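Sequence in, structure out.
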Amino acid sequence: MKIRAISLLRLLFQLALLCLLFVACDHLAAARHWLIPGSVIGLGILLLLLWSRILPERAVSDGAGWLLGELLLFFIPPVISIIKYWSLIRADALTVAATVVVGTMLVLAGTAWMVERMFNLEKRLHARQLSRGG
């Protein structure tokens, strides 16, 4: 029971930190009138912190895992909105559908490209570490 409570507190703390980071970046982007959304800036900052190892992966792994696991919940409101306002959307449905399909394909292609690059980087780093006798 105690371990479960600690795990829950760690999860809530990590979620709070992630939310705080993204809210702070959103306010920063709004105050500076930047065209890049605060959530993208926050994601970039989080990526830099993880990459530089200033922030260890374990510091956000539980919160990020929960958010990814519950991702479907974040898509329910848009689906309900589409159903509710279908009469307004119908006129532009083909344009919206094409945009969604093309955008999804671009995201998938970009993700695949980045995963392949990171995998190759990991292979090179691992080979370099082995050649040094590590």
